[in-house]
Amino acid sequence: MTGGEPGVRWLMEFYNEGRGIFARYDIEAPLPAAAARLGLNAALSEYPSPPKRGRPSLFERAERIGGQDASGWVLHRIVRASAPGSPNAVAPHAT
Fold first, then answer.
1. Does 2 have pLDDT greater than 90?
2. What is the distance between the alpha carbons of residues 78 and 10, in angstroms, rounded to a whole number?
3. Euclidean distance between CA atoms 47 and 16, whole angstroms
4. Which among 1, 54, 61, 72 counts the fewest CB atoms within 10 Å?
5. Could you tell me the end-to-end alpha-carbon distance of the chain, in angstroms, rounded to an integer?
6. Half-sphere exposure of residue 1: CA atoms within 13 angstroms, side-chain side
7. Percent helix, strand, coil in the chain (nearest 5)?
8. Residue 5: which of 26, 27, 25, 31 has the closest Cα?
9. What residues form DSSP beta bridges with 80?
């Protein structure tokens, strides 16, 4: 797949360990990277970060330098949603 296919459905799961939140989204995007970005935006809008007071801790600054997302969300799983009965098909679960 070179340029991606329009209208591909992706099922993805995000996890925020610090807040103990698990979120699942069904996103339409041509490529998995675009779907991951849209899914992260959906998680951030559904579960906004609590307001921070003061400067970030040394640990928080180190996480950002190490490439961690400051929001704490991690893409746990992404799968291409396919027609029922195909090997890639995933049954959606209620969140």
1. no
2. 7
3. 10
4. 54
5. 31
6. 7
7. 25, 25, 50
8. 31
9. 10
Q: Is 0.85 surpassed by the pTM of this model?
A: no
What pLDDT sits at residue 47? Answer: 92
Signed CA dihedral, 94, 24, 49, 30: sign only: negative
- Rg (the chain; Cα; Å): 16
Measured over the CA atoms of residue 10, residue 11, residue 17 and residue 19, the dihedral's sign is positive
Q: What residues are paired with 48 via a beta bridge?
A: none
| Mean pLDDT for the chain overall | 79
37 vs 82: CA distance, rounded Å:
20
